[in-house]
Amino acid sequence: MILGIGIDMVKIDKIRKAINRWGSGFTERIFNPEELEGIAKGKIYDQRLAARFAAKEAVIKAISKSIPLSFRDILILNRGNGAPYCNLKKGKNLKVILSITHIEDYAVACAVAQKKI
Ligand SMILES: CC(C)(COP(=O)(O)OP(=O)(O)OC[C@H]1O[C@@H](n2cnc3c(N)ncnc32)[C@H](O)[C@@H]1OP(=O)(O)O)[C@@H](O)C(=O)NCCC(=O)NCCS
After folding, report:
1. Within the chain, how many helices (H) and strands (E) appear?
2. Which of 37, 76, 83, 112 sits between 20 and 30 A of 97, alpha carbons compared?
3. Strands (DSSP E) found in 40-93
């Protein structure tokens, strides 16, 4: 059963500025170690972090009526084929599917929350 959908768009520059200003104080407040390990520190590192930030906000929008979630309750990871997936630390009866895109200036994510039956 579908519980909700969420969408979010993040300006890459906003994330870049937060990383430059706060460094790991920012990234570790938002992301879990396994999420950060999956993002190579290359040319599109800021884009990929921004996309995951957008994905977490999209998940919160999709689920917010069911349970309160913090950023670190939500894990955004990638399958072997590159497709993103979401693991939740709370709400074992919930499943989220999502899609992510990012370009030089913006990242967008869309999430659909489902109740497992
Ligand atoms: C997967 C694909 C659609 C990504 O599109 P893109 O325009 O290059 O990049 P986007 O910014 O829109 O999307 C990137 C995100 O797509 C997601 N993604 C990657 N592989 C995916 C897959 N197999 N299924 C679903 N989502 C996928 C990832 O979340 C990725 O971001 P991340 O690596 O930071 O997690 C594209 O690489 C692809 O494989 N297209 C298939 C068609 C094709 O091969 N065309 C070439 C011949 S013309």
Report:
1. 4, 5
2. 37
3. 74-78, 84-88
Query: Which residue among the candidates 56, 102, 115, 116 is catalytic per the annotation?
Result: 102
* 20 in contact with ligand 1, CB cutoff 6 A: no
Look at residue 116 in the predicted model and tell me its pLDDT.
Answer: 84
- List strand residue ranges (DSSP E) for the chain, in order: 2-11, 74-78, 84-88, 94-102, 106-115
Q: What is the CATH number of the domain that holds 33?
A: 3.90.470.20
Distance (Å) from CA 81 to ligand 1 centroid: 9
* Structural domain of 61: 2-115
Number of domains in the chain: 1
The tens digit of pLDDT for each residue in 70-106 reads 999 999 999 999 999 999 999 889 999 999 999 999 9
Q: Is 43 a catalytic residue?
A: no
Ligand 1 contacts CB of residue 110 (under 6 A): no
The verdict on the CB of residue 101 being under 6 Å from ligand 1 is yes
pLDDT, one tens digit per residue, over 18-36 is: 999 999 999 999 999 999 9
